[in-house]
Amino acid sequence: MLEKRIPIPVAEAVTRVMKYAYQGEMEKVSLIESYGRTLGEDVIADHDVPHFDRSPYDGFAIRAEDTKEASSSNPIQFEVIGEIGAGFVFTEEVKEFQAVRIMTGAAIPAGCNAVVMLELTEGFEENEKTYMKLKRSFVAGDNISFKGEDVKQNSILVKKGTVIKPGVAALLATFGYSTVYVVKQPVIGIVTTGSELLEVHEQLKPGKIRNSNSYMVAAQIERAGGIVQYYG
């Protein structure tokens, strides 16, 4: 006589099954092939981000102490001695009441400790020189994105077990990871039982149905990152 089956909650069933799960093996893949894969180990930052002090705005790099007396009734004038774009370094010495035109993402010139946003300044030419003036004071550190502000060296960038999505791929590329260790894709076999089942290519017969569930399960396996082996 068959023993009566006693149903259990889904959560309990999952817990029981997971007791028999084991850690998958890892493999190294190129970053370009890693989308959708699961990281097999923590990824560590090998440098700060940003790795230099930089400007978050278009504007002028200045010495904040030169603006101490600036006000709407007492604008301070600066000589613009150069320009620096993202990816370049300004090597000249920045002296008192001098400024450097700076673009978003560019490194802060040595000697400067603040950035004035472009819209807060007024530019003009005089005696074949370029000047700008401003009407408010600034303090050291104003409008500067400091080294390590976003990510500190040796911190965990992405944790083991994370599925690699476009944003994660971009982060890994930022830190020079051209290859990453990922969990090997599990190979999962599908075996169907049931005397009422037909293969999808077979003609319908009285009392029979096509085996649709296997294809649903196969799609779910692939969506979760597995490799399907269909055995009928």
UniProtKB/TrEMBL annotation:
<feature type="domain" description="MoeA N-terminal and linker">
    <location>
        <begin position="8"/>
        <end position="176"/>
    </location>
</feature>
<dbReference type="GO" id="GO:0006777">
    <property type="term" value="P:Mo-molybdopterin cofactor biosynthetic process"/>
</dbReference>
<comment type="function">
    <text>Catalyzes the insertion of molybdate into adenylated molybdopterin with the concomitant release of AMP.</text>
</comment>
<dbReference type="InterPro" id="IPR038987">
    <property type="entry name" value="MoeA-like"/>
</dbReference>
<dbReference type="Pfam" id="PF03453">
    <property type="entry name" value="MoeA_N"/>
</dbReference>
<keyword id="KW-0500">Molybdenum</keyword>
<dbReference type="GO" id="GO:0005829">
    <property type="term" value="C:cytosol"/>
</dbReference>
<protein>
    <recommendedName>
        <fullName>Molybdopterin molybdenumtransferase</fullName>
        <ecNumber>2.10.1.1</ecNumber>
    </recommendedName>
</protein>
<keyword id="KW-0501">Molybdenum cofactor biosynthesis</keyword>
<dbReference type="GO" id="GO:0046872">
    <property type="term" value="F:metal ion binding"/>
</dbReference>
<keyword id="KW-0460">Magnesium</keyword>
<dbReference type="GO" id="GO:0061599">
    <property type="term" value="F:molybdopterin molybdotransferase activity"/>
</dbReference>
<dbReference type="InterPro" id="IPR036135">
    <property type="entry name" value="MoeA_linker/N_sf"/>
</dbReference>
<dbReference type="InterPro" id="IPR036425">
    <property type="entry name" value="MoaB/Mog-like_dom_sf"/>
</dbReference>
<comment type="similarity">
    <text>Belongs to the MoeA family.</text>
</comment>
<dbReference type="InterPro" id="IPR005110">
    <property type="entry name" value="MoeA_linker/N"/>
</dbReference>
<keyword id="KW-0808">Transferase</keyword>
<keyword id="KW-0479">Metal-binding</keyword>
<comment type="pathway">
    <text>Cofactor biosynthesis; molybdopterin biosynthesis.</text>
</comment>
